[in-house]
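Q: Study each token:
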Amino acid sequence: MATKGIFLVADDEKVCCNCKHFIQYHLFNAKTEEWQIYHEGLCLFTKHKHRKSTQAACKHFKQEKDLNKVLEQLQNNVEEITRKEKCIMKKTKFEEGKKYYCSSPLNSECVYEFEIVKRTEKMLVIKDSDGNMKRRKIDIRDEEEIIYPNGKYSMCLVLGSNELVTEEKTQNIVKENIETQYVAKKESNITYVDFEKKEEKKQDNIKYYEINEEMAAREKSMRSFDDYKKGSATMQYRELVDKAADIAEKQKKEVDSIYHKKIDYYFDLYARKLAENLNKNYEIGTRCPSVMVVGAGNFPVRKKEKQINAWDKNMQEYQEIQKILEKIKGIGTSGISSDDPRAIQKLKEKLLHLEEEQENMKAVNAYYKKNKTLEGCNVLTEKIKKILTDYMKRQNITKPYSSFALSNNSANIKRVKQRIEELEQKATDTTLIG
């Protein structure tokens, strides 16, 4: 490194040095810690280059009086250059095959781990904990190499070559996480043991799928300054599954037992699809932080747009998953299957209900024709009377049940009777063949 040097001379020396118009260049050798003359120097006033020591000093020669000040300045120059040289020699580098970690600037408990897959002089190929590969440029900060795993923006992650994952570090991280979980259980009353007890009280056959708590914590740190409560994502998921379990159990009580396996299948499908959808939602949330958290400076707008589009697609999938609950509610109510061993019995019960309904409609019409009112009709409840009365006024009709209602019900009776005869004939033929 070439630098300007100020050197003292004796009064009897006749060299153009220490003159305010004179510049002498020297080289500093950091290894030997010695100054070496670069060339003889330059007198700016006389415009004479390479003035030799045999020449007389110019008339502007001035002896430096404050020798201690000059020596101090020289010493500072030497120390600064020596420090820079040592920093270059001690600089740590990323090594292939090794793992490094960094903490979120928003939440120190949220630790990210990356593995160096490949490196060149200026670039790195890294792999995160989810197996995603990224290519990043190497920068220098103080005495270490650094990269920006998720891009460079305000409050972004910074991975340094000094933060190498060792066995001791891993144990410390695990220990800190265990202690944090213990504190969170005390403060928030969210415990994994309570989940199991609640499951035993609710139902023994509910199967819960795993929720990625680490991903949920990352997603929370990317959009909020509040601390993430351990187990909150799992608790939210299980509350939704418990509501679905209530729907499934209610449907089982209302339909025949042959539909129970089908209800269990769709309930398990709902629980599995819901866990996948929620985990995907948390993963999308870690792709880009909120602008309210990191600020607008150098914000990755295009990256945020892609994240929002991914969220929209995931929300559509969530809405499709919720339709499974409606499907569970409809199992066993759409009709009577011919394959049902109790099909004939169910059809006879249905026929009896239709015939009873037909007789009631005829009796109500006859009562209204005679009395011109539904008051006092014992066949109907008070609520049904009010509904029929309002309906007759709006439609301006002369009887509670119209002709087409009676004819439709009569057609249903005829269809059910015909189907009963077909199934009975089929059962007779099967018995004879057997």
